[in-house]
Amino acid sequence: MRHRSLLSFLFITSETLAFTASSSTGNIDMNIASTSSSTSSVPTTFRALVAKSAGKSFADVATITNIAVPSSLEKDEVLIRVKYAGVNGGCETFRARGEHAFQGNKDIKDFRLGAEGVGYVVAVGSEVMQQQGDGDGDGISVGDAVCFVGSAFSEYTTSKAKMLWKIPDAKPEYVGLRISALTACAMLEQTGKIQTGETILITAAAGGAGHFAAQLAKLAGCKVIGTCGSNEKVQILKELGCCDHIINYKEQDIQTELTRIAPNGLDVVFEGVGGEILQIALDNLSPEGRILQVGYISEYPHNNSNEDDTDTDTEITSKKKERLNASEYYKLIAGCKDRVLDLYAKGKLKSLVDDTPKFVGLESVSDALEHMLSGKTTGKVVVEIQ
């Protein structure tokens, strides 16, 4: 049987696209900033996690550094006081090591760390300021709560205004929506084009992206099978009501369960584990099945000795691959932002935040990343910055 395999590592791609448009170090125009009394609290320096150079791991390279607040902003930029930042295993591992989408980091010094976060706008560039009074409901103003991508492990960061999501408040639940939920929506609804009645396997279904994917698949009327690694996660998935079948791979054999639950094969797999689980997913695809590869946590550097770290590249390359380039992906996600925010606002999409333990301050980020990579987490791991 030939399978159609849609492979796109969007846990990297989605951030890279947004980061490219918002990574300017920027400067704060204090004449502009003075238009709001709230900006008087902006300090002259702020703390951020910076890597002096690429290294073996995030913990090895992450250093808390004092950075001067610059004097002016680009006309289309804003300055954000960061409240919460998200933790991504692949993004931060590869960014720190200068691998995959972050290979360029091997050739630079003093690069900022962190991906998505939420916070409050404390200053805006001249062009952004002019748009505040044009009646545009999406206009960004000082004091607005926003989701952003770029240098989130920092007390302050800059972003292009057009890349921001305006939100009601900078709550940790919104952090997961910015990359994890957006990626799940784009992968399932745009790339995978899931249809009512299809049988879908979501691996790591209680994880940061997985719990969004399971909910979206259920909303689409699919038969949803979720895998997880503990009875606690089984209970959480039951409470979400997003899975028709839940497989605890620590206590059940995935292949046996899939043979029983989906004897005719899987139409779609949303896969973020890699290794043996990816191979099982490939083996159980229907003739026209689609695999949406969003990660491979079993094969990240911290798991080199993991028994699930098997080579599936030959198997994958024997099947048809379809990869999206940056411009194609950007078009696909254009409508997913509003859909994700609308579903969340209506209570149809829940955002889980892993809060055991709680991580507070830049000093806790390395521990938060290790916790995220432990496989013990549920939902999105978030660090409270300030």
TrEMBL record:
SUPFAM superfamilies: GroES-like, NAD(P)-binding Rossmann-fold domains
A GO CC term assigned to this protein in UniProt: mitochondrion
Keyword Electron transport: no
Signal sequence segment: 1-18
One Pfam short name: ADH_N
Keywords of the record: Oxidoreductase, Signal
Any one Gene Ontology molecular-function term assigned to this protein's record: zinc ion binding
Domain Enoyl reductase (ER) as annotated: residue spans: 62-383
Superkingdom of the organism of origin: Eukaryota
PANTHER family with a match to the protein in the record: PROSTAGLANDIN REDUCTASE 3, SHORT-CHAIN DEHYDROGENASE/REDUCTASE
Protein name per its UniProtKB record: NAD(P)-binding protein
